[in-house]
Each structure stands twice: as structure tokens, then as C-alpha cells.
Amino acid sequence: MRPRRQKNEINVVPYIDVMLVLLVIFMVTAPMMTTASIDVPSVGKAATPPAEALQVNIRADQSLSLTAPGKAEQRDLSRSELSLAITAAQSKNPDQPVLIVGDKNVKYEAVLSVMDELQRQQVKRIGLLVQPTGK
Fold first, then answer.
1. C-alpha distances out from residue 62 to 65, 69, 127, Å
2. Rounded distance, CA 54 to CA 92, Å?
3. How far apart are CA 129 and CA 111, in angstroms?
4. Which helix (H) or strand (E) holds 27?
5. Per CATH, which fold does 43-128 belong to?
6. Is 71 or 18 the better-scoring residue by pLDDT?
7. Residue ranges covered by each domain of the chain
8. CB 78 within 8 A of CB 64
9. CB 4: neighbour CB atoms within 10 A?
10. Torsion on CA atoms 77, 130, 115, 105, rounded to nearest 10
């Protein structure tokens, strides 16, 4: 009687069956998955700012200034003075837009804090001034 020899082969047929089943499952479920699309605004589509808007300027050192519509001079303000100036301007014209002009190097948090302050003052129209491409 001859001794039985061990086989040194791996039976891959069950692995192939499992892979084919997984492939079919992924092919069926892939079209059903929804992907989120984000429409990122580009500065190329930037509208021209309204001429009668107040401009709140935030410099790189986070100091604030206010530019009245039609005037080129900037008035340096503290945060509390900004609230008073905006309230005074909004009392004359409640729908007057306010533009936030932030320096490229200013922190995002500083811009958001100014926006928050403007919203606390019940400003209805707040915008961010951007520079169109090509300038």
C-alpha cells in the first residue's frame, strides 16, 4: 500500500465565487449612491458692488476702518465705534448694504466676527467685496 501524499495546492474556486458575488453587489449598488456636489463661487462671476454701500475695511493687523459711500477717506474705528457708526448710518437708510473688505492676509475668524457684529446690529444686506480675476 502506497502512502497518501499531501497536495500543496490552494483551491481558489471558492475565492473567485466570493469575489464575483461582491462584484455584482457593487455593480448594482454603485448607481444608487448619491454624491454631494458643491457649487463653489468663483471671483470671475463677481458682481459689481453697489455704489451706495458702506465699506468696513479689515486690514492685515485686524484694525478696522469705515468708508462712507461716495467718499474716498477711511475713518479708523474700534469695534465698538464700528457698531455705533453702522447703527447711525442704518437709521437713515435701513436697506443700505454693508460690504466687508478684508485683506488677503487677514484671518477668517476676524471677518466672521465683523459679520457677526453686523448681524447683531440688524444689518439686512451684508456682502463680501472680492477682486475679479485679471486685476
1. 10, 22, 18
2. 13
3. 12
4. helix 13-29
5. Nucleotidyltransferase; domain 5 (3.30.420)
6. 18
7. 43-128
8. yes
9. 6
10. -70
